[in-house]
Amino acid sequence: MANKVVIGAQWGDEGKAKITDLLAQDADLIIRYQGGCNAGHTVVAHGKTFKFHLIPSGILYKGKTCLIGNGTVVLPEYFEQEIEGLKKENIDLSGLKVSPLATITMPWHTEVDGYSEDNAKKGKIGTTKKGIGPTYTDKMARIALKIEDLYSKEALEEKLDVILPLKNKQLKEVYGLKTYSKEEVLALCEKYAKIFEPYVCFEWQEMLHKFKKEGKKILFEGAQGVMLDVDYGTYPFVTSSNPVGGGACTGSGYGPKMIDEIIGVAKAYVTRVGEGPFVTELTDNIGDTIREVGHEFGVTTGRPRRCGWFDAVTMRYACLVGGLTSVALTKIDVFDSFDEIKVCTAYKDKRNGKIYNSYPTDVYIHKYLEPIYETHKGWGVNISGIRKYEELPLNARKYLERLEELLDTPISIVSVGPDREQTIFKS
Ligand code: GDP
Ligand code: IMO
Ligand code: MG
């Protein structure tokens, strides 16, 4: 197996975990490299459903190394909860490692995230309130704590002497929130040190070198999706990290030459949770049907996902900036009972009739855009038991081949159900 990166090619929840779990069978090392517990990743194996937030979706296989990389932000209590949940399921965690360079989400980060969301009069993002934005903000401002700091009293105290006066001023004066004493934070950090201790991998450099030297297979698991990328997504309605393929390098410790393939996971339609533009959104009963048939409710927050037709304009852009070498198309089975399936091939500006064949990055004009659709005939049969591409109904194959043409990117995997087994490898 080549070294592969699995990323979301839309607005998250595309089925990345299903594809990661599937490909993890042949990998030696699986790395989650960005995001945090804003992610909700579902794996269905042997009829059982597992939900992951931070822990790589390869953990279900014994004997694999699963690394939570330096590019992630980690909420200790949430990590602990996830670990406890997996222990109850008797999942072997001996291969789980956490980078000492991962950034810690402190209580003030979740509090500020919650406050900002609850009090936003304008420009609400609809975040998961897991402190993601405030943690990455502090990382970039160089006032965040790394997991390694928990094990050096000197570093911790020195850092807190810089962080706390700034943080407390901000918490009190900007947000009217509770402040933190150094003693209180030191006690918290002691607790966090214990949580991470069995997993923190101080010898991560040696480990990465060894995997590289021995030609071991590496699978990088992305979170969120290209359209939520802080650089390329529908800014400011995005997350605060880089879900594009390039994020795999900055977030893992491996350089670009270690990557052979970038697989962008996309649904046969589009969903989005939270605020922000969504040109093909369906607010009618077709959208409701997609939500019901596709069970489109958030794994992390339980929020109903906004649903719409496949948007080839945005997705073509995602193929480009995400660096995709191929697409894994999921949830095509959701259309089994649809007479007609639409695909957006261009946008039209309602104000002046201007046609956009390429994705306009100025999201403030998106509210004036209407989708131009082409219509495909449905296939009217249950395809969830099909395992060979040639056995798919002709209309399903025509639909997939048209998507490849529109995206100018091959589809390598077609997913016809949530289970590991319900997958077709194409070509
Ligand atoms: P992720 O965040 O990208 O890993 O995706 P989520 O786990 O948030 O959401 C994807 C949902 O779709 C999960 O409930 C999966 O079990 C389910 N799923 C994945 N692939 C398929 C598929 O091909 N068909 C159907 N019906 N469900 C799928
Ligand atoms: P997975 O990995 C879908 C969305 C939130 C919000 C925006 C910013 O399961 O695909 P944040 O809490 O990150 O600051 O929120 O990003 N969002 C996701 N949407 N799937 C996800 O993860 C998401 N992670 C964040 O809904 O709109
Ligand atoms: Mg998800």
Labels describing this entry:
Adenylosuccinate Synthetase, Chain A, domain 3, Adenylosuccinate Synthetase, Chain A, domain 1, alpha/beta, binds magnesium ion, 9-stranded mixed sheet, binds guanosine-5'-diphosphate, 427 residues
Distance between the termini: 15 Å
Radius of gyration, in Å, reads 22 Å
CATH architect. name of the largest domain: 3-Layer(aba) Sandwich
**CATH first level of the largest domain: which class?**
Alpha Beta
* Ligand kinds: guanosine-5'-diphosphate, 6-O-phosphoryl inosine monophosphate, magnesium ion
Broad structural category: alpha/beta
CATH topology group of the largest domain: Adenylosuccinate Synthetase, Chain A, domain 1
Determine the mean pLDDT.
97
Low-confidence stretches: none
What is the molecular shape? Answer: globular
Roughly how much helix do the residues carry, as a percent range?
25-40%
Largest pleated sheet: 9 strands, mixed
Number of domains: 3
CATH homologous superfamily placement of the largest domain: Adenylosuccinate Synthetase, subunit A, domain 1
Binned strand content: 15-25%
Counted beta strands? 18
Tally of helical segments = 11
List the helices and strands in order: EHEEEEEHEEHHHHHEHEEHEHEEEEHEE
